[in-house]
Amino acid sequence: MDSVASYQRFPSIKMREVKGDYCKFELRNTDASMANALRRVMIAEVPTIAIDLVEIEVNSSVLNDEFIAHRLGLIPLTSERAMSMRFSRDCDACDGDGQCEYCSVEYYLRVKCHGDQTLDVTSKDLLSSDPSVRPVDFADPSAGIDSTDTRGIIIVKLRRGQELRLRAIARKGIGKDHAKWSPAATVTFMYEPEIYINDALMDTLTPAEKRSLVESSPTKVFEYDETTQQVLVVDPEAYTYDEEVIKKAEAMGKPGVIEIHAKEDSFIFTVESTGAIKASQLVLNAIDVLKQKLDAVRLSEDTVEADDQFGELGAHMRGG
Amino acid sequence: MAASKSPRQHNNLGKKDYSKLRELFRHHIESFDYMLEAGLEKMLNSIDPVVVFDSLSKTKQAKLSYTGKFFMQVCFQYGDGPDGAVIREKFNFGQFPIMLKSRRCPLGKADSEEKVVAHKEDPSEMGGYFILNGLERVIRLIILPKRNYPQSMVRNSFRERREGYSDKAVIIRCVREDQSAVTVKLYYLNNGSARLGFWIQGREYMLPVGIILKALIDTTDHEIYASLTCCYDEKFDRVKGCVGTQLIGERAKIILDEVHALSLLTRPQCLQHLGEYFRPVMPEHENHGFSAVAAAVLRNYIFVHLDNNHDKFTLLIFMLQKLFSLVDGTSMPDNPDALQNQEVLLPGHLITIYLKEKLQEWLLKVKRTIMEDLDNPNKKFDIGSLALVKKIIDKNSPKSISASIENMIRTGKLTTQSGLDLQQKAGMTVMAERLNFLRFISHFRAVHRGASFAGLRTTSVRKLLPESWGFICPVHTPDGEPCGLLNHMTASCRITSFFDSEGKIRDFFKIKRSILSILVGAGMTPSLPRHLHGGPPEVLSVLLDGCVVGSIPSAWVEKAIFHLRKLKLSAKSPIPHDLEVGYIPLSMCGAFPGLYLFTSPARFVRPVKNISVPPQDNNDIEYIGPLEQVYMEISCPDGGDGGRRDQYPATHEEIHPTGILSVVANLTPWSDHNQSPRNMYQCQMGKQTMGFSSQAINCRADQKLYHLQTPQTPIVRTKTYENYCIDDYPLGTNAIVAVLAYSGYDMEDAMVLNKSSVERGMGHGHIYQTETIDLTEQSRNSNRTPRVFRRSNQDSQVHHLIDTDGLPYVGKRINPDEPYCSIYNEIEGKTRLMKLKGSEPATVDYVSVDMKTRKKANIRFRQSRNPIIGDKFSSRHGQKGVCSQLWADVDMPFSAVTGMRPDLIINPHAFPSRMTIGMLLESIAAKGGSLRGEFIDATPFPDSVKKSDISLVVELGAKLAAAGFNYHGSEVLYSGLFGTELECEVFIGPVYYQRLRHMVSDKFQVRSTGIVDQITRQPIKGRKRGGGIRFGEMERDSLLAHGAAYLLHDRLHTSSDHHIADVCSGCGSVLTTALIQPARRPVRQMSGLPPPRVPKKVTCVSCKTSKGMETVAMPYVFKYLAAELASMNIKMTLQLNNGAGA
Predict the structure, then answer these.
(1) Which residues of chain A does B978 touch, with a Cβ-Cβ cutoff of 8 Å?
(2) Would the CB atoms of A272 and B899 count as touching at under 8 Å?
(3) Averaged over A58-74, what is the pLDDT?
(4) Higher per-residue pLDDT: B384 or B322
(5) Contact check, Cβ <8 Å, A186/B843
(6) What are B299-358's pLDDT values in tens digits?
(7) Which of A109, A201, B31, B135 is the Cys-Cys partner for B348 at CB 3.0 to 4.6 Å?
(8) Domains and CATH numbers, chain B
(9) Does B958 touch chain A (CB under 8 A)?
(10) Residue-number span of the structural domain to which A107 is assigned
(11) Is A28 helix (H, G, I), strand (E, B) or coil?
């Protein structure tokens, strides 16, 4: 083993910005496969809770049953509990019928329109059996009472005499199975760019050339300082790897005036959550899930269980 | 580019403007309205009174009422009264179908959208169709030859009429005020004479023109000679515009000599001659004198659009001059396929003439019964007794008249003796399918060339001719069989009607009089009093609706036209705004010159801007017809000067270049950047899209409706989209489309959909299907046992599906082959269950029962159709594709900047050969538009209207660059699988995608074993019955070529009709072998042991031996072939060997 160089690395995360639904962090000392794995897990494998079964008692609204059920499914529910909940298919308490407190949350919706005004049925009308799992509230306390956010997510509109009565069961699931369980609105990462300006070559450019070079980038990466007549990098991360600046430099006959490389081992992540889990929690959960997955592989590496767990794949992983 | 900042303005105002949309349907409704208001009366007046004994004339009057059926079958009662002098009796003529939104329809009276909605119809309801048995049917617009306009024609078939006929003729389709038409042909004979041909009772009669000329008016040979030859003047011989030649005098002599040869010199002699000739074929005139018969012939068959014999005479002279000019080559034949010589058959007109014929038939029938009763001495029949006459009329089922109209609209078939002067008797109506809104609109804008042309092998009728510019859309025609025959009118094209702009019926008499006075003021010499007029090039004949009203010096004609056009613009002048001023100028051997004015209905017209005259009453929009358009100077904004340079300055201007496109073609964004066939494909696919077919979907019981659950309004749209309120019926989704070869699942027009996008609702849809169960109807066919909806109390298994009333629960999901409805037979005491057909579960959406009888029920099912592999999608640029994979969201490429993953991936190879640049532009524009939150106007030919220095791409690119995106719309994407940057930048942006109705769920076919054909024992065909797909000759050939013998044997034998036959090796027959059943011996049945196997014993019946029987595997059809051959006394013998020696 000694002859083989160790590939062990110690990835580090540095949180840059954390807001409820949004966070930005740096991931360093690792490679693209790890970064992408984290992204994929965040989108598709961090569990959340979403409505999965709808029993409709009365529906005299204009939308049909499937439509309403689909809309209910897409409502994000606060899913802090999700990591500790059971998948209903693995639930021992209810023999997999998925209706017990360990693996499900029950909702009721009973609305009827009595007035002449159109009644909006929103996610706020859903009554939950578990107060910790409730439809995400986007309300901004500073906004007025009538702002669209405070009314919740509209499910259907009712006119006079129309009624909607249903029971819904929310279960734990992952985004791989259905997009409604995905906690991430957007997860993306970029390679950190290294921008190098060849000052000697840059000095050969006229101010007008410098200005047009700066302007050739659609995003504001560079700035031209009129007083010092210098091209400065103001925001390297605004660079989208579009190579517009480099093409421009080549067109000017000065290739190499600006060189940009991607750092292969550091990534800047942007995470936006649907509100089901806080963005920061989403990252932590994703790391947990990723760990579990790796554990599953490592633990079963040389055990007989591998055959049980992975079947042929297990043998394959062991080099069989 | 003008991006509208508030595209839903109409919403803000609360009211949408449907007037433009309704305008598209107007010609259907107006023609029907006219029929109701005045046309029927005119028609009834023109029906020949049936005369029984001493002049018992019949007049009619109409009474209206309506009943509702299904949705809104509005009916019409109709009265008729026989009277001696004043008595009027009402008769019920049955239920008459009424067009929706016509003046007799409650929707037509509803003035606000709320009222229309109260009738459970869409707020935008346009009407124009009929509802019969719950089906919506439209009367097709069919191209007819232009009425009252003599056209010269060259056809080889004319030669075969009789000996001596040439291939040249002048044909005029004359239309009476009641819209019935009679075509008259003027043939040229090789000897220089001419024959006038017309049809009476299915036979063509051809008369020497001389007789007709003389029979029409009191005239002299000299007058005929002079009026014929007046169009020739030696001094103009071979001058531009001269139509006459020296030969004309010779021909006039021949014509007159022919009449002399028959020794017909005077008018009475000619009338006598005609009367004698025609009385046998005119049964209604059998008691009349010869001259009266002759007068009837002239009135009813010759130039029926003219009432006056003098007008007929002058028209005949004009036609002769045109014919001779055609023969001499001084004028060209008219092209019957060109739009300038065509008009359209309108629904109201068709119904009027059909009704007229039916009424005439019925009157003759009534007359016959009365006559029979009168002649019958046993019956005491008194014609004076009104009650008896009424009884006879009632006996002759007057209600059948309305029924026959209804039948015509329902089947599209005309059952007529005379043919109504139409070329076709079937296919007059079509279903107005509500597959989606575009398809629905198109039914009302479609113009068919006529079913008789569909079978023609020549393609000349299908050609797109320059004459149809602005009237017929060059893009919107189907490809394949009906290509070029089924055309669509442009969005701005209109059909003239009897109504003026204020909705009042036009007074044609007044219009004609004012036109005449204007013409006379402009220098026209009226044709009355009779005196000689010259001919071209000196003077031009003026025809007003097929009547030669005079002649005008050719030097003054342009001024007269200028004046007429000016008056056309003015709202106050009595000249109608859609008067067609067809001025055919003098030319060297071109079309026959003249000034042809038309005020008639059923003509095509379209608006253009008149720039030669100052606006009259603030109006500079002139409506022009196809006949005048050819000779007008109309400049098109993007066409430069059109080659007319300075000599011929433009007098008119197109309003917008998109005026040449139909509504559907106008919806394609930037269609001017696409290769033209792609726009044609889009016109087809737009009509196959799943979308919102109707707003009132819950009140409808269509057999099949497609419905898109989550439609969107396109970000990039044309002005037409807003003008016609397409937002009420959206048909697609803005999908983020990435153009790259990813996954390998996007080859050959396949496309990869993002699984998460689909799960979030993209392209979700439903199919609504309605089953109508009519218990009264079924019992008529079989036994007359009364049946009711009721469920069985014994069979409680179905109780979870069927309610106590025998009908399903609304909202219940029903699987294939499960019952949804239970019918109880009261006599047999049995219940029968109706089971769900098909292979997909359906949800009961809606159940309605006829509350009067409780014998009829509509059950509407809903099937979810979410996108799956194999479903078809298309952009609005003729780029269709099939979903080949639902690809996981995490595996999709993503943008590092925005985190965006595409909804849909298409292959870049879809572009180079198809050149749909419009789609690329749409992607860029929609990206810019969605970044800025605005809609983008993508009306084609924008730079022709608003000249701008910068190109479209520059404008769109700048918007993207301003938002920090790549100028050309491409982005750096990262592989979703590896997280690494993709080699190339990827073109990505939102494109409006349509989901097409072709779905695998309706098409997939699979079978392992199943039903086989009775006779051949081969698998049956047909998806519905669980059949297989034919492995045909060509497939067989390909396997043979590959040498795949085992596979071939498996497909064609083992998996098909494998059979083991017994063959007698003695006689070689497969047919004479018979299985001998051994005599059943009483065998002790030992319990637990299987019965002893009895050896199979086969004998040959003909050889009477059981020796040498062999079993041979063969296809069963082979044995069947042997049997078939045997039935024809052909013996088939097989020679068997064990194969080792072979």
Answers:
(1) 32-33, 36
(2) yes
(3) 93
(4) B322
(5) no
(6) 888 898 988 888 898 899 899 989 998 998 888 999 999 999 999 999 888 988 888 888
(7) B31
(8) 19-143+345-449 (no CATH), 500-632 (3.90.1070.20), 664-764+868-996 (2.40.270.10), 774-864 (2.40.50.150)
(9) no
(10) 48-178
(11) strand
Share of chain B above pLDDT 70, in %: 89
Length of chain B: 1142
- Identity of the residue in B811, B976, B979 whose CB atom sits nearest the CB atom of A56: B811
Question: DSSP assignment, residue A161?
Answer: T
Q: What is the mean pLDDT of residues B717-737?
A: 92
Chain A residues within 8 A of B971 when measuring between CB atoms: 240, 242
Instruction: Give A206's contacts (C-beta < 8 A, 6+ positions apart).
Output: none
The amino acid sitting at A308 is D
Task: Please report whether residue A215 resides in a domain.
Answer: yes
pLDDT at A259 > cutoff 90? no
Q: How confident is the model at residue B71 (pLDDT cuts 50, 70, 90)?
A: very low
Q: What are the pLDDT digits (tens) for A263-298? A: 888 999 999 999 899 999 999 999 999 998 888 877
Is residue A2 in a domain? no
What is the distance in angstroms between the Cα of B133 and the nearest Cα belonging to chain A?
27
Would you place residue B11 in the very low, low, confident or very high pLDDT band (cuts 50, 70, 90)?
A: very low
Cα separation, A184 vs A207, in Å, equals 45
Distances in whole angstroms, Cα of residue B1056 to Cα of each of B1031, B1050, B1052, B1111: 10, 8, 6, 19
Would A190 be classed as within a structural domain?
no
Q: How far A142 CA lies from chain B's nearest CA (Å)?
A: 25
How sure is the predictor about A98, in pLDDT bands with cuts at 50, 70 and 90? low
For residue A175, give how far its alpha carbon lies from the nearest alpha carbon of chain B (Å): 8
**Last residue of some domain: A235, A256, A277?**
A256
Q: Are residues A130 and A230 in the same domain?
A: no
Residue B566: left if φ>0, alpha if ψ -120 to 50, beta else—which one?
Answer: alpha
* Tens of pLDDT, residues B1014-1024: 999 999 988 88
Mutate to test the interface with B, among A24, A36, A174, A234 (most CBs of B within 10 A): A36
Residue in chain B nearest A188 by alpha carbon: B899
Return the pLDDT at B1082: 56
Closest CA to A65 of B800, B762, B811: B811
Q: Is the pLDDT of residue B94 over 80?
A: no
Domain co-membership, A158 together with A107: yes
Torsion angle, alpha carbons of B624, B630, B632, B635, to 10: 90
CATH number, domain of A132, equals 2.170.120.12
Contact B899 A270 (CB under 8 A): yes
Residue A81 counted as domain residue: yes
> Is A84 within 8 Å of A123 (Cβ atoms)?
no
Instruction: Tell me if B811 and A59 make a contact (CB, 8 A cut-off).
Output: yes
Strands across the sheet containing B165-175: B151-154, B165-175, B181-189, B194-200, B203-208
Please indicate, yes or no, whether residues A238 and A143 belong to a single structural domain of this protein.
no
Q: How far is B972 from chain A (nearest CA, A)?
A: 6
Are A213 and A141 in a shared domain? no
- The alpha carbon of residue B3 is apart from the nearest alpha carbon of chain A, in Å, by 23
Whether residues A128 and A56 fall in one domain: yes
Whether residues A69 and A102 share a domain: the answer is yes
How many domains in chain A? 2
Structural domain ending residue among the three candidates A241, A256, A271: A256
B-chain CB neighbours of A176 within 8 Å are: 888, 890
Q: Which residues contact B954 (CB under 8 A, 6 or more apart)?
A: none
Of B339-353, B745-759, B770-784, B949-963, which gets the smallest average pLDDT? Answer: B770-784
